[in-house]
Design goal:
single chain, mainly beta, Porin, two-stranded antiparallel ribbon
């Protein structure tokens, strides 16, 4: 959880311009921006992925060293009414995690570096509040699936040969919030989103008693996205 606070602090910095929007009669920018049935845009951002483990026996936990990755993608938005929009946000997400397995003395056995490049396909519902001057808060959530381009699911090697394997396809649910800011030229929206895998991503070693995967009942991704969208 301590890694979430720098993300929240950074997000709040982007909310500072909202103070300028609390005038009694602000000049409205892009008054017709949300009226078309279809809207398009793109997003840039960063992520921090983690793993959540479920174990068969009460043994020492697997440690995960997380790092920041980046997100980039496109936005397609279909307007339902003033407060509801359906969004499709295909994107490319790159991340890296280093896993430390207990019970080993040799580093090449204890450490597994997991680099993942995901093509993510989320279908989301955006629920917005009423526009207040030139800003509008919103909640967003939905389901997604991703293709892991770095997956070695079909590899014949496993951890006994130094290869940690993950499945190619993963399914998630996503929940988040953000604020739309209407500038003079475009709509800008910083947002924070939690991403939680529904499916087990681990490809287990051939040996059912493997010291790497034998005690793992399920391994699921969870992560945080901080995105900046431009429409």
């Amino acid at each position: 959880m301590k890694n979430i606070f720098p993300l929240l602090a950074g997000f709040l910095l982007f909310l500072a311009p909202a103070q300028a929007q609390f005038n009694e009669k602000p000049i409205l920018n892009l008054e017709n921006e949300d009226k078309p049935f279809l809207n398009f845009g793109y997003f840039l951002g960063f992520n921090q992925y983690d793993f959540q483990f479920e174990y068969k026996d009460d043994l020492p936990d697997i440690l995960v060293d997380k790092s920041f990755g980046f997100n980039v993608g496109l936005i397609g938005e279909m307007r339902i009414n003033e407060f509801l929009d359906v969004r499709f946000e295909p994107g490319l997400h790159y991340t890296q995690r280093i896993m430390g397995f207990p019970g080993f003395t040799a580093e090449n056995d204890a450490i597994r570096e997991v680099k993942s490049t995901y093509i993510n396909f989320p279908l989301l519902l955006k629920v917005s509040a009423k526009r207040l001057g030139n800003w509008k808060p919103f909640l967003i959530g939905g389901a997604s699936s991703s293709l892991n381009l770095g997956s070695n699911q079909d590899s014949l090697d496993d951890n006994s040969s130094g290869t940690f394997r993950m499945k190619k396809i993963t399914y998630y649910y996503e929940l988040g919030f953000g604020i739309d800011f209407y500038t003079q030229y475009f709509k800008f929206a910083p947002s924070i989103r939690g991403v939680f895998a529904l499916s087990d991503e681990l490809v287990r070693d051939v040996d059912p008693d493997s010291p790497w995967t034998g005690n793992i009942d399920a391994m699921r991704t969870r992560g945080i996205f901080v995105n900046f969208t431009f429409e």
